[in-house]
Amino acid sequence: MSMHRQRWITGLLLLPAVIGLIVAGGLPLALFAALVCALSQFEYLRIVGSRGPGKSTDATSWLLLATGPAIVLAANWAEPGLVAVGLAFNLVLAGILTTVAFGAGRSVSVDAVARQVLGSVYLALPLALIVLMRQGQDGTAWVFWLLLMTFSGDIGAFYGGSYFGRHKLCPTVSPKKTIEGALGGLGASAFIGAVFKALFLAHLPWDTTLALFLAIGVTAPLGDLFESMLKRVGHIKDSGVILPGHGGMLDRIDALIFAAPVAYLFNAFIF
Fold this sequence. Notes:
2 domains
């Protein structure tokens, strides 16, 4: 079976469950987001070369796998402050573990702490913002809107690059991505986003909405490029194999985790 067909089959099989969880909201959605966080963080630790679980006694890696999902679950109580406290305590605990290890005469790396803290901000925080957004005004529509814009942009970039790609976008990071593909992704994201807005969020002003389209259209592919950069530095092709045709969980949500903070900003503070 071709990789292209595998991607569509995997996506279509997961679609009903994702729709159901978004509609349900609350704890079911938070638990699902926490699971996605844990899987993505495990893949992240493998990519960045951390001596993660199963390879050593690196306590900061285990800490990340515990605090990351906990931070996402904290968002279920619709308290952004709890999410911020979770991020702060993750840093505090990572610092304590490393200091104790150093005091006991063990070899420690400040880089390992930096990678651990980055993992919580990079993955747990954006997923927590999605849970928080679902609980806000028009939350269900906004989460669907975010997913549609992000994933339609990904599809538009794939087909735009496949059929019209001539000029490389950032060959040192991702040789296959093209400027034409990026423009196709931006156009697809804006078009699908406009249709959804007209049907379900008609009360929102168009001028601010166009700014949202542009912001999502730029940040989402940058999220893809950022993960590609991490994988290139780590000499890894895919973050994992859990999703046939897509690779790992992080490969699937790399654009989403950059787009989520943008959507939350517009939802909570701009519209």
